[in-house]
Every structure is written in C-alpha cells, then in structure tokens.
Amino acid sequence: MGNFSISDLEQLSGIKAHTIRMWEQRYSLLRPVRTATNIRLYCDDDLRRLLNVATLCNRGRRISQVARLSDEELASAVIACSDDAHDHAAQVNALLAAMLGMDEPALSQLLEDSTQQLGFEKMMLHVAYPLLQRIGLMWLAGTMNLAQEHLLSHLLRQKLLAATDALPPIKLAGAPRWLLFLPEHELHELALLFMNYALRARGQHTLYLGQNMPIKELGSVCETYRPEALVTVLTTQPDRSRIGEFAEQLQQLCPAGQVVLYGNLARQEGLVLPPNFVAPPLMTDFLALITEKNLAPLAA
C-alpha cells in the first residue's frame, strides 16, 4: 500500500502541508506513522480520507463537522455532493479516493455521473485525464498500487468501448479513413481508444488495430484499407533512440497523407520527423487537428 510523505499528500490533494498538520493536531484527522528520523508517513487510507475531506470542505462543509465523519460516511457524502458539472477537482478527488479504496461500484457511478453532467468527451478531458495525471505522480513517487491502477484503467477502457460502440455507424464512402495502432510491445491503450472515439464521433472512419502491432504487418493493411491518416501512441515503445527509425519505417510501409505520433516519446528534443508527421503535445491539440475537413491525399 501507499507510503506517502506530507508533500505527496499536498500535491495529490491540493491541501497545503501546514493545513494538513493543523487538521491532524486539532481533529486527529489522519494518523501517520513516524520514521526513526521523525518524518510523517501516510498510508492509502490517510490519503483517501484527506481527499474526501478536501472535497467536502471545498463544497462549503466545515472541517470541524467533516472530521467527525467515519470513512463510510465521508464516502457517501462525497458521492452525494459530486453533482457539480463545473467542479472537476471535486470529481477527480472523489474518483481517486474510490480507486484507493478499490471501490469499483463507486468508481463506476462517479464516472457515469460525470458523463451525464459533461458528456463523454468532456468527462474524459476534464475528469479522467487529470485523474490519470494524478496517478502518474503517484507512480513517480513510488506510492502507486498496481491493482488500483488496473482497476481504474479497466473501468475507463470499458467506458471507452461502450461509448464508441454506441456511436452511429460510419459509412466508408466519403469519410476520411484513419488507421490506429500501438507499436509492438506497447500496451498503454487508453489514449488511442479515446482518439478512436473522438474520430468516430466526428464522422470519420477508423480501423482500430489496438495493442502490440508489429510494424512489418502494417504494409498489407495499408494496401487494403488505404488510410488517409495513421495514428499511434508512443508511451514506452519503441526505444527512445529508435523513434526516428520507427517513423521512417512507418513512412515507407504506409505512405499515408498524415501520420500522428502522440505520447511523450514523440516529443523528445531534437527528434526529426518526416514532413507529413505531426506530434501534438496535448490531446486537445489532436482534437483540433481532426476537426479539419481536408486531410492530405493518400500518397501514390
């Protein structure tokens, strides 16, 4: 389970460290253990409780009242008040707390509530992605439980697949064709699934090949499907030193009009890409790109 410092709690909850200390002293809100050098260390339960308390206090509840609630009462109160479509921080806090508690029903309900309030695309942009960024910070701090991350990823994947499946069918004739895949050994699929949803929601045709696709297999796919554009996400693969080589190989196998490389590996300093390649830094940049009506034609 997690082993958080007070600075970790400050970064993850948005509550200043001196406020956390004050709440501990006045209300016994958290019960950290101390190291031999007298450093406070907090567990998942402490972080989950702090996130729920922060959510309620940000909604106008008094800390003196909130601190008396049990963990179960806190969780129920957070779910009951997470109905403000504009309070994304509260929604993210509530989801993170539910994830830490391995509370799958609460996670699912909170995601569903946010979707109903915002619409699916805005839920992903304003709630799910900030939540994933928080989780990334926890990974960097070494305080992330793999099972917790898997629970959230699985639920988001389910939501993405269901939302995409619910879209009206796209007729191939006249619609721009996009080929989406992850390179060999790349398994981080959520961003690509969201891109697939966004494209289909805008009336564009996609061929989704998913995870772990050997690049050598793409040539025959491109000959058959003839996409106007390719999209891939480079999170851990290929090796950082081989991104330029990967791009050149992709260009030769699939001479599409445009290739989108998304992910941190595609944005490294000094990387030179072919002229028809783009590497949008943010998901909102990708969404702006796909609203354009005229894609470059398929190369001969």
What summary fits the major beta sheet? 5 strands, parallel
The overall average pLDDT, rounded, is 84
CATH topology-level name of the largest domain: Multidrug-efflux Transporter Regulator, Chain: A, Domain 2
**What share of residues are in beta strands?**
5-15%
Count of helical regions: 13
The CATH class assignment of the largest domain is Mainly Alpha
- The tally of strands reads 7
Percent helix:
40-55%
> Termini distance?
55 Å
Q: What Rg do the Cα atoms give? A: 22 Å
At CATH level 2, the architecture of the largest domain is Orthogonal Bundle
Could you give the order of strands across the largest sheet?
4-3-5-6-7
Low-confidence stretches: 293-300
- Tally of individual domains: 2
Please characterize this protein's 3D structure:
The chain is built from 13 helices and 7 strands. Strand 5, helix 12 (243-253) and strand 6 (258-262) form a beta-alpha-beta unit. The radius of gyration is 22 Å and the shape is elongated. The longest helix is centred in the middle third of the chain and has 21 residues, at 120-140. Strands 4-3-5-6-7 form a 5-stranded parallel beta sheet, sandwiched between helices. It has 300 residues and is an alpha/beta fold. Helix 10 (190-201) packs parallel to helix 13 (283-290). The model is unreliable at 293-300 (pLDDT under 50). The chain folds into 2 domains: 6-164, Multidrug-efflux Transporter Regulator, Chain: A, Domain 2, CATH 1.10.1660; 177-290, Rossmann fold.
